[in-house]
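Sample log: Uroporphyrinogen-III synthase.
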Amino acid sequence: MTASQRALLEASGLSVHHVPLIQTRETHAPPPVERFDWLVVTSQNAVPALRDLTRDIHVAAVGEKTKRALEAEGFTVSLMPETFTGEALFQQLRDVASKDDIVLFARGNLANTSHMSMLPHVYDWVVYETIPVQLTPEQQQQLETVKALLVLSPSAVDALTPHLSHFNGTWYAIGEVTERAVRQVSTLPVRVPECYTMDALIQCVGEDFS
């Protein structure tokens, strides 16, 4: 969360608590294929592991933040779906890639792989692992006073699940994948912005609490 995003929430009269619920670490696994035509990236967390790849390829990014992270490393992003999900990304790639194109999917160990079946030549490359961070007893107790719970990934929902008896507010999920994870563990209200970005999520909260 940036300082400006935090300020927007605080301008709505909210006290903001930023609690990282996951850590990531690189696997340092080599790419499973030397030559490929497309690189698919569905999380900005994967970008640091791509430092040694050629830049002379087509790149598909899941959303704005991942696109910016890739461009900062010298990649040119050729494709980004209007809906920031892995499913939408693979669907759009299926429409533009040649049937002979080789696709390298750089992902975290918890990423959804079912979309890979949409394309004939996809190589799976797990470049980082997700490690949950446990809430402290104090943070667990704080959930009782939380009115808006912003979650940015299913992994964050998983980390919160053991402590949901402390929470009775409204969930704000960054996209439909995270929303599904929330609905599997909670019957409380869930709000999702039309555009799956942090700024849109914060705007959604601001509208509800201003």
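Observation: The first helix runs from residue 3 to 11.
Observation: The CA atoms of residues 83 and 195 lie 7 Å apart.
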